[in-house]
Amino acid sequence: MIRVKICGITNMRDAMAAVDFGADALGFVFYDKSPRHITPETAAEIIEVLPPFITTVGVFVDETEKKINKIKEAAGFDVVQLHGSEPPEMAAFWPKVIKAFRIRDFTDLEPLSKFDVWVTAFLLDAYAEDSFGGTGKLFNWEIAVEARQFGNIILSGGLNPDNIEAAVRKVSPYAVDVSSGVEASKGKKDHVRMRQFIERAKKTAL
Fold it and tell me: What is the domain-level CATH number for residue 142?
């Protein structure tokens, strides 16, 4: 069964809808330049009322260990996601870490071998020069297939209800991650699209 992460959660209504629709994980972006940025206090309010068995992920870009720990303590999320140019040893500070890589071509897979003993999953996103995620851009899924040799792959980048079935069939990833592909506007989810995305991803992976 494939896992589905809904990222860029900014409010209680979207969080509870994602859970009701069958999401396995929710992502909270603590990068202040993101339009989906959330404060630790707001994230904590949401996380506190989530039902059991929902994994919560804090997303950071080139942040310090001290700052991540401070936010983690305040918000109470489960897993750290590093989405910048962090070195491999950065992942050693927490028991469960997702390391994101922005993909342009097959050469972008080379750093994964340096992280495979440090992280629990790799998130592959489409490269954009001016953004660290949530761009809605696709990348070549053949690269994601190749990346599976390094460990658990979370497929991201340009996924939406219209292409998620093809993506899951092609890549067979450990999980899929979506943000802009199920939004009504930046930071606000379209609940119809979110439900469609989750249902189609899980149906295709059966």
Answer: 3.20.20.70
